[in-house]
Amino acid sequence: MSFVRKKRVLFICSGNYYRSRLAEILFNREAEASGLAWTAESRGLLQASGLKGLSPYASAYLRAAGIEPADGDPRDPMPIDVEDLTDADLVVALCQEEHQTMIEQKFVALAKALHKTGRLRYWNIYDIPQRPRAMVRLLGGAHRAPSQPSDSGTEHIALAVKDLARELSSA
User: Fold this and answer.
1) Is the pLDDT of residue 49 over 90?
2) Please, where are the H alpha helices in the chain?
3) d(Cα 49, Cα 135) in Å, to the nearest integer?
4) In angstroms, how far is CA 95 from the centroid of its own chain?
5) pLDDT grade, residue 171 (50/70/90)?
6) How far is residue 169's CA from residue 68's CA, in Å, rounded to a whole number?
7) Taking the CB of the first residue and of the last residue of the chain, which one, N or C, has fewer CB atoms within 10 A?
8) Which residues contact 99 (CB under 8 A, 6 or more apart)?
9) Are 4 and 37 in contact (CB under 8 A)?
10) Contacts by 79-84, CB closer than 8 A, 24 or more apart
């Protein structure tokens, strides 16, 4: 029996609490259902101390869709490191306006190399209007970036994940 390594997509958002985590869970479910030889992980660009588990918006969406996280209780948010980026076959940052500058500043040469090889892409899924207090402490007071309500954000993530899975299955 030969072992085929699954390719890896890495979803990134600011805190790894809502958007990237939901994308990870939905992608892994989609990949498993369609036999896609890809797996997803997710990380946050910021050290999100104080955030635990999974966003209530992501949890509510998953419950309504009848989806349970694979490992039962969802893990706490995890910050990104260089190895996460170098090990990924594809990196998707959930909001170009919010994350591109952060990625380019934190991972200067690596970000350029990923972009040049087509392994880094950006979506335009905005955060919720009211960030959790821990995120406000990390990013500063008011939420000045564009935002979208959690219900449209979760639907936007679900549609983008389905499109990505279709794209990867036909590649």
Assistant:
1) no
2) 19-34, 56-64, 82-87, 96-106, 108-116, 133-139, 150-170
3) 9
4) 10
5) confident
6) 24
7) N
8) 12, 13, 14, 45, 93, 122
9) yes
10) 79/16, 79/43, 79/44, 79/45, 79/46, 79/47, 79/48, 80/12, 80/16, 80/43, 80/44, 80/45, 81/43, 82/107, 82/110, 84/10, 84/41, 84/43
The number of CA neighbours under 13 Å toward the Cβ of 2 is 3
Q: From the CB of residue 40, how many other CB atoms can be counted at a distance below 10 Å?
A: 25
- φ, ψ of residue 92 in degrees (nearest 5): -120, 115
**Amino acid type, 100:** Q
Q: What is the pLDDT of residues 132-146, one digit of tens each?
A: 455 545 554 444 555
pTM summary value = 0.86
Contacts of residue 160, defined as CB under 8 A and 6 or more positions apart, other chains included, come to 23, 123, 125
pLDDT tens-digit series, residues 87-137: 999 999 999 998 999 999 999 999 999 999 999 999 999 887 655 455 545
* Under 8 Å between Cβ of 13 and 42: yes
What phi and psi, each to the nearest 5 degrees, are found at residue 159? -65, -45
Q: Which residue has the higher pLDDT, 141 or 17?
A: 17
Cα atoms in the 13 Å half-sphere on the side-chain side of 123? 24
**Which amino acid, 159?**
L
